[in-house]
Amino acid sequence: SLTPQNKWNKRHLSWRVKTYPKDSALLGRDTVRALMYYALKVWSDITPLNFHEVAGSDADIQIDFTKADHNDGYPFDGPGGTVAHAFFPGERFTAGDTHFDDDEAWTFRSPDSHGMDLFAVAVHEFGHAIGLVHTSAMESIMRPYYQGPVGDPLKYDLPYEDKVRVWQLYGVRDSVSHTNQPGRPSQTPEPPNKNVTYSNHFNCFKVLFCGVLLRTGKYFWRLTREKHLVSLRPAQIHRFWRGLPTNLDSIDAVYERPGDHKIVFFKGLKYWVFKDNIVEEGYPRPISDFGLPTEGVDAAFVWLHNDKTYFFKDKHFWRYDDHLRRMDLGYPKESILWKGLPAQLDDAMRWSDGSSYFFKGKEYWRVPGSDMEVEAGYPRLIAKDWLRCTEMQSDSPDSETKSTETRVNEHHHPDHAENGFEVCSCTS
Amino acid sequence: APSLTTEQLDTGVDWLSRFGYLPPPDPVTGQLQTKEALTKAIKAMQKFGGLKETGVLDQATLGLMKLPRCSLPDVSQAEGAKRRR
User: Fold this and answer.
1) Do A125 and B66 count as a contact with CB atoms less than 8 A apart?
2) Pairing verdict, β A263-267 and A235-236
3) Cβ–Cβ contact A141 with B under 8 A
4) Which of A149, A213, A284, A329 has its Cβ near the most Cβ atoms within 10 Å?
């Protein structure tokens, strides 16, 4: 049946082209198989699914080019009209099967007027074969109407809308996370349902290897430079950053050191230096190495304008020279010198636009270039600008995310060490 | 909008049933669709297709119905049934 069955339980799916377009003059068999391979790869590149071609008739995804009534209860209607369909996942024999109307002129790398781009239609139909239904979203490949060719299969990038929907079905294919091999218990304990919610207090996003990490407690998410969430599900900090103590329940601040680009984590009175995501020998060390106060730090960032490292704590800030490994004289200074910024920041970062961003609770402030004054129109909501939340989501009551330790008097922001909502990461 | 030919109306109703916007006519009584159900179905289809929700089979709507497309319904039977209940 065509009512959507949720998704495949298994992660390894076989496929086979059983019949080919009759008018193969246009498309040779090898071209058809290659296009099917790349259309499936669009989905396996971003999910834990794996597709492999088989020769036998027991393939999970049987691909046929057929026409008119072909005995599956969904006859085609000649040229135009309906052009293809696929069966949703499930246990039925037809589950996953994909049929293309052989009355269509199937093309590859041809102008739209010459016929139906086989790769574009195949990506859509395999979306169904793994469980996606139609959507009205304008950019989505899962719109029901044929939208014309989608360009080179080797360069095709799935619309973000479709990535999020398939991630919600299968999670993300991520080099870090251990995909659940069938039958083998997952190595990675599933994090509690900590999908990013739009009223979380994320305290900083920083650029890390052209992505952005945002953290809360001992979990973190990654945003692309386009501010797209790579995954709705977080990774555990200490499973990715090898060498942090596993009992660490949060991070105070992180920055990427100018010069050697090593990453410095702060928690309480200690700091760790990482090369890539592995801690270096001899850490943790006391933050007094920097000449910092003995209460720890709230925020740390490297100012693009002078490549100096700024530390913030309560109402003061320090300026440190990472090239000379020395605190500059005359510090700390009052943080009110950064006009418009609140005290007790959660974190700070610099961004590719040359501005510096400061985060606290659900809001953030922007300080352009080498100014030390907040730009007009700030603060703004993190959720809306960085997590692309809609109006409704971004200011939804945060009752569901407020855990007991964060249920504090709204008038003053709790010291973030209490509420477990620390977010810090690294620059690049 | 110019009045529809019977054939256009039939085509439209068939299309709406085929893609899940209208429940299939009752096989026993042959009960046809009510005008209200038809209007609602047309609006849902127009919304899904990004058209102005006029509720009538105007030219833009008939044009969209002619576009090549996937044969899976836009509204699954289960969803439709849920809505009907």
Assistant:
1) no
2) unpaired
3) no
4) A213
